[in-house]
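Morning!

This is the sequence you dropped in the shared folder:
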Amino acid sequence: MERFPISIESAFIALLDREYADRKVCRFVACPDIVGSARRTLEAFDFWYPRLYWWPLALVAQGRSRNLPIPWELIEGIFIGGSTEWKMGEHARNIIKTAKMMQKWVHIGRVNTPARF
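The structure's back. Tokens below.
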């Protein structure tokens, strides 16, 4: 198995360290997510938050986030990830409405087509 010279965690932290002086103009940093698992993404957020709390953070919401809590008091934004079908669905729309009501930033990842852009 080929080993990489730097871990993904180290690379992520190095990127944030490099941009630290400009953090005041940063809208948010999306905490790393676990693709395909909303529950594991919340666990990853719990891992990353104490390491990154001085940055404005966003949680990545994705399919199956339906009955899971969103730590609104800890985030500045929500990143809507997951499948196109989920992003276009009622639950994602409700998360977006809630985020806007709470004056949080919203970003929808991979819009996938010019019409959706």
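Headline: The chain has a mean pLDDT of 89.

More detail when I'm at my desk.
O.
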